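Hi again,

Forgot to attach this to my earlier email, sorry! This is the prediction with magnesium ion bound. I've pasted everything inline since the attachment limit keeps bouncing my files.
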Amino acid sequence: MLTCEALGHAYPSGGASLDVLKDINFHLEDGDFLAIVGPSGSGKTTLLGLLAGLDRPSHGRVLLDGVDLGALGEDERAKLRRTKVGFIFQSFQLIPTLTAQENVQVPMELAGADDAAERAEALLTRVGLGARGHHYPSQLSGGEQQRVAVARAFSTRPKILFADEPTGNLDAANGDTVVELMTSLNEEFGTTLVLVTHDLELAALARRTIRLADGVIVSDSAA
Ligand code: ADP
Ligand code: MG
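Structure tokens for the complex follow:
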């Protein structure tokens, strides 16, 4: 369902350009669970952004369900992200002016669901926050905000979910809860999961691990 072919990315750097990803190739099937690991600066976040269609690659291709993301315009990529892709960030990135309930509900409304309110309530209950729907992000702890972010990411039932160091700002107990939620939702909905992490315990839960160093794949446990 997700393929990268000779994927590369360069950022402009002064007058020159900085190659941060080089010749990345792999393929994921529906329901796969991939961990991407590697030192800071090795290109993990850049890779995730390309895979999720947030950015366009400077070389090569990303195919999501056979669609070449780089060939799509900004609007088409945004539409594809809304319908197929979920994203969880290290820093939660909830909308501060919306309640927990609204943060989960709004993406479903944008996707045209007419039962968005009920589904948002059910998802918040699923992540243990059924009683906190009326609270704003600033009234929630980091662990609670990340659980809302998990509920939001799964709300539109994406085919693929990307998470960039989702436990990086959480203590061990909250990190475990968030991981347990992501993996159980991965199994429940058959969502493909792509997780960037520093945490080797977390990476060990994945069925496959790709290790990056200096923008290249140095090992791939499924290769
Ligand atoms: P990781 O997530 O593994 O820490 P990143 O993908 O964030 O790595 O960064 C890879 C490299 O690209 C780093 O050297 C970083 O400084 C550089 N980089 C990331 N974003 C940009 C940007 N917008 N402009 C220029 N360089 C960037
Ligand atoms: Mg990063």
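The mean pLDDT is 92. The pocket of adenosine-5'-diphosphate (ligand 1) is lined by residues 11, 18, 20, 38, 40-46 (CB under 6 Å).

That should be everything now.

G.
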